[in-house]
Amino acid sequence: MTSSSARNAGPVPSDAAGQTSAPYGSNDSPPDRKRKQVTTARIADMRARGERIAVLTAYDATFAAVADAAGVDCIMVGDSLGMVCQGMTTTVGVSLEAMRYHTKCVAQGLARSQGAALLIADLPFGWYQQSREQAMASAIELMQAGAHMVKLEGGGWTTEIVEFLVQRGIPVCGHLGLTPQTVSALGGYRIQGREKDAADRVQADARALEVAGASMLVLEMVPAQLAASITRDMTSCATIGIGAGNGTAGQVLVMHDMLGINLGRMPRFVRDFMKGADDVQSAFSAYVASVKNGSFPHNEHHAW
Ligand code: KIV
User: Fold this and answer.
1) Alpha carbon of 106 to those of 50, 136, 148, 212: distances in Å?
2) Domains in the chain: how many in total?
3) Which of 177, 154, 150, 175 is nearest to 40 (CA)?
């Protein structure tokens, strides 16, 4: 903007919450967009109001746009892409380049369809463990590819990394419980935090991640009671469960699982939303509705 146009622009309008219009012509909610952009502030507000947050993975432009049109709040470009797109047996071999590529595909799909979902991208194994600086460089790649937030796995040692990223303007989602990148160390895809010591550790790690500034926290395959207790403990961070019962602030599923397509065995915590749906968008909409009204997951059928 030139200095004369800046002078002519007049006062920047602000809404009731005192938020000004987006600067630099970045219209964050264009007039024909069907719903408002989901932001970290909006996620925090949903958590505070008790509106459940529906998160779904997607890895390409079209599925991302369809998920967005179905009302999904956050789209996660998970490193599960290594398993569902690339055919690997774990997420360990996923590269930063693969994450950057799929994040960009999803971001472009959302931009083209004027999507509103918050885009979360996974930092892959080997690209944040060495140092805060390595994590920052990797996060920059994903943010520049279009992510609004990055996710990383693990507790304790990750706290200082989360703080480092958050202080530098990168929203972060933590991931505790079953952390697939360290499946070898965990001895398989099994429920975590069953014994008291392990449960206390997960709870303490969750608290530390919130203090470090994590906006969201995925809890994967932990007992429903533990996930609910962590959720109650949180004052700002939104817990997102997967195989963690219905007491979390939101839910996430891998898209292929909830569409009933899986090369292996379907995990207990999944519901096939394609059953009874006419098309993929209806299946996504049914997922969003079931998360929002609390009917999915069912603690008896989908949790421990
Ligand atoms: O990689 C992934 O898709 C994930 C979600 C299932 C939480 O981490």
Assistant:
1) 28, 21, 12, 28
2) 1
3) 150
Residue nearest to ligand 1 atom 8, measured at CA: 78
Q: What is the extent of the structural domain holding 264? A: 36-302
Q: Is residue 16 part of a domain?
A: no
Q: Is 76 helix (H, G, I), strand (E, B) or coil?
A: strand
- The helix (H) or strand (E) run that includes residue 240 is strand 238-242
Establish if 239 belongs to a structural domain.
Answer: yes
Q: Whose CA is nearest to atom 2 of ligand 1?
A: 78
Residue to probe by mutation, ligand 1, list 55, 56, 59, 76, most atoms within 8 Å of CB: 76
**18 domain residue, yes or no:** no
Other Cβ atoms less than 10 A from the Cβ of 36: the count is: 10
Per the annotation, the verdict on 153 as an active-site residue is no
C-alpha–C-alpha distance, residues 192 and 179, integer Å: 9
Pocket test for ligand 1, best of 55, 63, 94, 151 (most atoms within 8 A of CB): 151
Residues 213-243: pLDDT tens digits? 999 999 999 999 999 999 999 999 999 999 9
Evaluate whether residue 30 is within a structural domain.
no
Closest ligand 1 atom to residue 80 Cα is 1
Query: What is residue 15's predicted lDDT score, i.e. its pLDDT?
Result: 53
Query: What is the distance between the alpha carbons of residues 122 and 126, in angstroms, rounded to a whole number?
Result: 12
Using a cut of 0.85, tell me whether the model's pTM lies above it: yes
Distance in angstroms (rounded) separating the CA atoms of residues 152 and 156: 12
